[in-house]
Batch of 2 targets.
Target 1
Amino acid sequence: MDRLLNLGKFPDSFRTRGAIAPSSDRLCVALAGLASNADHILELGAGTGAVTRALTKVSGVKSLQAVELQKKLAHDLKLKFPGVDVENCSADVALDSYCAQGSVAVVSSLPFRSLPGNIKSAIVKSVLRFLQASPQSRFIQFTYGFREPFAVSAEFQWRRVKWIYANLPPACIWVLTKTEVTCEAARPE
Ligand SMILES: C[S@@+](CC[C@H](N)C(=O)[O-])C[C@H]1O[C@@H](n2cnc3c(N)ncnc32)[C@H](O)[C@@H]1O
């Protein structure tokens, strides 16, 4: 049903939605697996909740917050997942105000390739600020192409984790972390 609703709204908000179908179970499970050993999970662009559902099954996390820009979708997510802290705001605002002790797995379905430039740039800045302040955290993102989701400086590092072919269209999962700093003084003689 979610799938049909999604297609029914096409193409009114395509630039911010960025997909013609919800993420497949395989993709959702793979994303949840990459978030599994974090203290907290922050989901960006939760949409109709396909990824959220998989994230609720990750055990041992202290909190799960889901962020969705569209009011109606956020409202529906609250009803579907009463145990999840659902925020109806933009991802950059959520990242800038997020506060938690320990490591955070930020799981994003945001359509970086199709977002308007100013919105994309605000979110990218917030993601990088977040990883600067919390270097033990990671940013998990899937794309539908071969290129990394967005460019970063040498301070940060993208790792291509896996392709999920059982998804429409096939998706590639990437993980962004702060690059480890090698301290000269700590090098062995
Ligand atoms: C590709 S859909 C993902 C839906 C769902 N996570 C899934 O995998 O099926 C992207 C979602 O990101 C939301 N979105 C777009 N821009 C956003 C922003 N700036 N902040 C938060 N959510 C945003 C859209 O409203 C849409 O629901």
Target 2
Amino acid sequence: MSGIYIHIPFCRKRCHYCDFFKTTDLSQKVRLLAGLKRELESRASEMASEEINTIYLGGGTPSVLLIDEQHDLLKTICQNYLVSGDAEITLEANPDDLSQTILSALKGIGFNRLSMGVQSFSEADLKLMNRRHSVVQAIQSVKWAKKTGFANISIDLIYGLPDQTLEEWERNVRIAVELDVQHISAYNLTYHEGTVFYDRLKKGILKELPDEISLQQFEILIRILKEAGFEHYEISNFCKPGLYSQHNSSYWKSKKYLGIGPSAHSFDFNSRRWNVSSIENYLHGIENNQSYSETEILTEQDRYNDYIITGLRTVWGISEELIRTEFSASCLFHFLKIRDKYLNSGHVNCTSGTVCLSPVGLFISDKIMEDFMFVSNHSSYKSIS
Ligand code: SF4
């Protein structure tokens, strides 16, 4: 199982919380699309023996592209890669880019999944975040997408916003449930350096929501979505039975993927590669057959830590057997020691050799992952070696 991600680094407006690589200057759009096609063609050999099961146009805002431009990218993939007949093909879309006509066209060119950046059903929150769309547009676009026949729709929400009350957050989650979508991703607001929110926080214009309120919002989210029949399959992701994001799940399950476009990452089990986060440098490299990426060969420690971070995030957890067979005795020793610590405290469960976060562990997942990570000069192993 393999995937292709294409990064479209264009947005019509900057959201105040966002630190993704993007620009609101669309003047290089046509040139960039030519570059993306060239990268897709030139890297096809990396996936020569692989069936492509997921394609994901993300960004940025790929819904700013014209239908013909999106179609061109999908056609280039199909012409150069072995795409499975039932591949999951996702478009990230902003609600205000969608109309019934556009949704029909998107379905017609092959998209079978939409990931919609809704973020909130409160006008005040949308304004605070500098989102382009209104609440009415968000609700309308989900309804249109369903009417058009999209049977796999995901919406993104953000909690932990400044001054957001528990009641306001609960209302958001309940509206999402009423819309009867198949997938919901909900993220706790992070103040990334370089964003407007970060500056306002530093200047005292915004006040961070206390951690205990964000945690209660997380609890509300989990409770309501579970009651509504969603599976909580990754820390921030919920789906109707079986309807996981196959593309994102392949990141969490360490499957091979190709990342196309500026700032996109690729992974092939032994190495990680990332393209430059600059449209100009990316295009200069592509157009002149020069390098536009860096590659890192993964050490055993990197692979172990990646497996821990991605595995613990999900219901599929960490396999003790895999740690035993794939990693050295020092990794195994460290893993077992931390596993026992968190089994005793009730923060992880272990069933048939698979270690997962327990419901209480979910709330301190960052700390648990940090403890499980392995640093090669770990003193606990030295003492027995
Ligand atoms: S959140 Fe999405 S739409 Fe907003 S600036 Fe970031 S990439 Fe663009």
